[in-house]
Amino acid sequence: MTTAAAIVAGLRSQRDPANVEGQRRFGITPKTEQFGLGLPILRAIARANRRNHALAPELWATAVYDARLIAAFADDPKQVTRGQMEAWARDFDSWAVVDGVCCTLFNRTPFAEEKAYAWSQCRPEFTKRAGFVLMAGMAVRRKELPDATFLAFLPIIRREATDERHYVKKAVNWALRQIGKRNPRLRRAAIAEAKRIRKIDSRSARWIAADALRELMNR
Questions:
Q1: 26-29: long-range contacts, CB 8 A cutoff, minimum separation 24
Q2: What is the pLDDT of residues 60-73, one digit of tens each?
Q3: Among 29, 93, 98, 139, fewest CB within 10 Å belongs to which?
Q4: Does residue 219 register a pLDDT over 90?
Q5: Dist. CA 31–CA 115, nearest whole Å
């Protein structure tokens, strides 16, 4: 049986300092250990341990950036608990970790909508980003969800559009655009919401609205 320790040892043996520096130039600056392995390598390891819910928390507990992404790619969303989501969210320390976890795993859990609402109100930058990345991820992956789920997210997006922090405003914008790309009805609703956001006296809100309208109006 593959263990977290064995996986981390294998990752460490392939450590690429040049890639670590390259990742850091793109804002991937976790507080944890970082080996600089590419996503194809991490996803291949995850495929070999697919739906291994027992292994995923062990990988997360290693506090290694690359191992934490494997944990997200390998875990079983049907077995993820609210407690696990909250525990991992407290450890979020990089936009790449947030996006890897929320777009691959948490967005497919039964608690995704609940956590999107809750985290969108949090103060920590990466936890708040997670709320909106969940919305974006659900818009892309959760084909079974009704339009009402996403229509209800739009006022939350408008409410938080004034947050000037880079990784928050980018996620707010991402959520708005992905909702608008889901289908024609939601596209119309997202465009209308973007126009309302555009009127808010906030540099962040104006950027979010302009970028979303540029994409959605040209579809």
A1: 27/94, 27/95, 27/96, 27/167, 28/65, 28/94, 28/95, 28/96, 29/94
A2: 999 999 999 999 99
A3: 29
A4: no
A5: 24
Residue with tokens 């997360």: 60
- State both tokens at 110: 């039964």
Tokens read off for 175: 């959520």
Q: Decide if 40 contacts 66 (C-beta within 8 A).
A: no
CB 16 within 8 A of CB 37: yes
Computed on alpha carbons and rounded to an integer, the radius of gyration of the chain in Å comes to: 18
pLDDT surpassing 90 at residue 151: yes
Q: How far apart are CA 100 and CA 123, in angstroms?
A: 21
Specify the residue for token string 């996006």.
Answer: 99
pLDDT at 22 over 90: yes
SS3 51: coil
* 3-state percent breakdown (helix, strand, coil) of the chain, nearest 5: 70, 0, 30
pLDDT of residue 154: 98
**Has this prediction a pTM greater than 0.90?**
yes
Helices (H), 75-165: 82-91, 95-104, 112-119, 125-141, 147-151, 153-159
Say which DSSP state 94 is in: S
Residue listed under structure tokens 């062990």? 58
Give dist(CA 141, CA 70) in Å, integer.
19
Separation of alpha carbons 83 and 6, rounded Å: 26
User: Which tokens go with 101?
Assistant: 């976890």
For the record, the structure tokens of 174 come out as 């991402």
pLDDT tens by residue, 79-95: 999 999 999 999 999 99
